[in-house]
Amino acid sequence: FFNFFIGTCFLITLYEWHMMSKKKKYKIFGFIFLIFSFYSVYFIRNELQIQSLEKHGLMIFLFIVVVCVSTDIGGYVFGKLFKGPKLTKISPKKTYVGVFGGYFLSIIFTNILINYSELFTDQNLNFGRDEFVFVLIISTISQVGDIIISYFKRLSKIKDTGKLIPGH
Fold it and tell me: In angstroms, what CA-CA distances link 32 with 4, 29, 35, 68, 100?
């Protein structure tokens, strides 16, 4: 079921990228990035689980999803509430406060996930220095990726990358 879902998301994403980047020089780089990204999701969820014979693949996948989603929510909420100086002209609504809000919320959410979710407490994990650094790395990659997509949207002269989920 998971592989079918990811495969369907991959096809929809390929279509949305194709529609966004018609006749653009950077089109092929987007396709390569999408193939790499979706293969990474497949690998983390399926191959790590097979290799360790435990729930590691699912745990890592959920961990990354929680970090990315909470980074996005934190950036939006803190940026709207506290405003502040703009981060870049590429994405004019992004602020420095939003960046730190993204970090803050992702740290809080993953701390809660690791310390209170049965999926993680069964593994005797604690939210320590390694997890903290991992959250910062994933959150940074998520935010940089968001700015890169904003750059490609500007090149394509569109507001949203797709119509399926407006704003994303």
Answer: 20, 5, 5, 21, 30
